[in-house]
Design brief:
Layout lengths: L1 H24 L7 E8 L4 E11 L2 E7 L4 H11 L24
Antiparallel strand pairs: 1-2, 2-3
């Protein structure tokens, strides 16, 4: 019995170390979507960029200067690799710190 507990504890400790390494490897990121808008949409003139995201259950939009667009796109890609940000795989039923069930 004690041997099984020690083995399980060792497995858990290895998993914790792997998760720590995955978290350390994460690059800077931010949620949202970046869109190009136009001051005159019909003439498609006066383009500018907006970042739309939700924070504290409220929809928000920020103006993004043209010289920052490449960087913001990279940050969004880091948040949505392959479509959605995924926390490192945890044990079934476990919720990452700071997250709430259903998010």
């Amino acid at each position: 019995m004690a041997d099984n507990n020690h083995k399980r504890l060792t497995q858990i400790e290895k998993r914790i170390e792997k998760i720590k390494a995955e978290l350390i490897a994460l690059e800077p990121m931010r949620p949202g979507s970046l869109t190009r808008q136009y001051k005159d949409p019909q003439a498609r003139s006066g383009p500018y960029y907006q970042l739309s995201y939700t924070r504290d259950m409220k929809s928000r939009t920020d103006y993004i200067p043209r010289h920052c667009v490449r960087q913001v796109r990279r940050l969004i890609r880091n948040y949505h690799p392959g479509g959605h940000f995924k926390f490192p795989q945890l044990w079934p039923g476990q919720i990452p710190p700071g997250a709430t069930a259903g998010t």
